[in-house]
Amino acid sequence: MLGQMQSQPLLISSLIDHAERHHGEGEIVSRRVEGDIHRSNWREVARRSRQVANALDGLGLPMGDRVATLAWNGYRHLELYFGVSGTGRVLHTLNPRLHPDQLVWIVNHAEDRALCFDMSFLPLVKAVAARCPTVKHWVALCDAAALPADSGIPGLLSYEAWIGAQPDTCTWPTFDENSASSMCYTSGTTGNPKAALYSHRSTLLHAFGAALPDAMSLSARDSVLPVVPMFHVNAWGIPYSAAATGCKLVFPGPALDGKSVYELIEAEKVSMAAGVPTVWQMLLGHLQAGGLKFSTLKRTVIGGSACPPAMINAFNDQYGVEVLHAWGMTEMSPLGTVCTLKNAQLSLPADERLKVRLKQGRAIFGVDMKIVDEAGEELPWDGKSYGDLLVRGPWIIASYFKGEGGDPLRDGWFPTGDVATIDADGFMQITDRSKDVIKSGGEWISSIDVENIAMAHPAVAMAACVGMRHPKWDERPIVVVVKKPGAEVTREELLAFYEGKIAKWQVPDDVVFVEAIPLGATGKMQKMTLRQQLQDYVLPGV
Q1: Which of 214, 312, 374, 441 has the most CB atoms around its CB within 10 Å?
Q2: 374 to each of 392, 424, 445, how far by Cα in Å?
Q3: Residue 2 lies in a domain
Q4: Is 186 a catalytic residue?
Q5: Catalytic, out of 79, 160, 331, 451
Q6: Residues 67, 114: contact at Cβ < 8 Å?
Q7: Looking at residue 471, which CATH number applies to its domain?
Q8: What is the pLDDT of residue 278?
Q9: Do 22 and 135 share a structural domain?
Q10: Mean pLDDT across 416-442
């Protein structure tokens, strides 16, 4: 027997329709590449999204064609999110931090037909345009007056002139909710990047799950600052969840330094912000240097890489901001877990609560996970057994675009490449990436634990733990450290800092001080590159 409810496909166009109808006055604030602050609202974004839809129709792009963006977080990018996908075309967000050769490879692999870019990326576009033969239309996200006469890009359009010539009415098409809506490429740390191709159904289900109270807890009462880029897994789905809930959105544009982010938080009464640890390090540095406080910020979602305990403590104890540790992947749309405490944990002593907050958290509804040993046998949720982390769910990848890499699944589960534990309450903790785990004398050492201890030292700005070959123990850990400006710490002092905080055999064998640790296009530490830089390094006494 079937249910007797109405059947309507889950489509991204329904999100912007809802936001316009029920939250039309909800603010959309953007710091533009032009340097000024632009103010819009959900009603205006919906109107201009329809103009985008009509402009794309005018280019003759059929459903399923890829439309690429090379843009910062802002209102024009938001309009493309809905105008492109709402018409059945596929939004392809490009990461401007990639090497031009890698960018060219991705554009050609995706077979992008149009590319819309912020003017700050004009030099990059000029460098790659001739090598991207599938792109037939280039659109600069600017006014007609800002369009350079000598761009070197044939037929370059001004976004404002392009959509401004279009009517602001249209009927969004109806189609299968499993149709592709957007695509994001992995960072490609091993081999060429691979593309996750999201559907309308998966995107809406993820938007619902991410907005839940035990996830990001978004509502029409929130003012949300997504510092996480819109070119990084669709800003963790925040634009979609924001449309569903009607919350205010505050976009930082290209200005991600501590001063700019702080000023935007205060001026726009931001209550929730989301981003990677490197951005929050800059923000905390600005706060501490100026003796500043937050007046409205209540919580921040931190993901992308493990959040150091010192950062959680600083936000919570010094500034009254709750840190929500989160975890996910491009292949997961991306949200998988958020570390929100359960009722029984609220009364725990502060040090016990911190132990929980350091974990990546509980699976949000829609995500199932398990850990397995090398034989593929499931391990218990006891907080001690660690193994390969596998996930499954309606917004988790089944295969990569064009079948790259073959079948990624193991008996229907996606192997994340992370090594983790899960405790009896369902809190998952990443102990390492499987490729970064250090095996010393047959025992595993968590590089994340070693890094977190180093990061707690007041003189350390950034730390990375890597394993180095050892003739007796196979591998031994060393910690690579960037010192804070003007701060000093010796090798001996930092190694002594580990005493009592970790088992003696897990203490790193050496400290290597460097000017900078290589970061990838999404702000994550590039340990493969770091190992290459240390190829001539020899452990003490070896």
Answers
A1: 312
A2: 19, 22, 17
A3: no
A4: yes
A5: 331
A6: yes
A7: 3.30.300.30
A8: 82
A9: yes
A10: 86
Domain final residue, candidates 420, 435, 450: 435
Q: Does residue 449 sit within a domain?
A: yes
DSSP string, 238-263: HHHHHHHHT-EEEE-TT--SHHHHHH
476: domain range? Answer: 438-533
| Alpha-carbon 175 to chain mean position | 29
Catalytic residue, from 293, 342, 439, 501: name it.
439
Active site residue 160: no
245 against 522, higher pLDDT: 245
Percent pLDDT > 90 in the chain is 81
> Quick check: is 377 catalytic?
no
Does one domain contain both 345 and 485? no
User: How many folded domains does the chain comprise?
Assistant: 3
- How confident is the model at residue 516, as a pLDDT? 92
φ/ψ of 436, rounded to 5, equals: -105, -10
The per-residue pLDDT of the chain, averaged, comes to: 94
* Domain identity same for 226 and 268: no
pLDDT over threshold 60, residue 189: no
**Phi-psi category of 335—alpha, beta or left, where left has phi over 0 and alpha has psi -120 to 50?**
beta
Give the per-residue pLDDT at 191: 64
Same domain, 413 and 446: no
- pLDDT tens-digit series, residues 224-275: 999 999 999 999 999 999 999 999 999 999 999 999 999 999 999 999 999 9
Q: Per-residue pLDDT averaged across 295-321, rounded?
A: 92
Residues 42 and 178 in one domain: yes
Please indicate, yes or no, if residue 376 is contained in any of the structural domains: yes
Please count the residues of the chain: 542
Do 474 and 370 share a structural domain? no
Domain-located, residue 538: no
Q: Express each pLDDT in 149-188 by its tens digit.
A: 888 898 999 999 999 999 999 999 999 999 999 999 987 5
* CATH value at residue 356: 3.40.50.12780
Torsion sign, CA atoms 69, 74, 79, 85: positive
pTM of the predicted structure, to 2 decimals? 0.86
State mean pLDDT over 216-224.
Answer: 98
d(CA 115, CA 166): 19
Which residue among the candidates 27, 444, 473, 529 is catalytic per the annotation?
Answer: 444
Query: How many other CB atoms are there within 10 angstroms of residue 506's CB atom?
Result: 18
Phi-psi region of 72 (alpha: psi -120 to 50; beta: other; left: phi over 0): beta
Residue 491 and residue 407 share a domain: no
Running DSSP on this structure, what letter comes out for residue 501? T
Out of 186, 203, 245, 522, which one is annotated catalytic?
Answer: 186
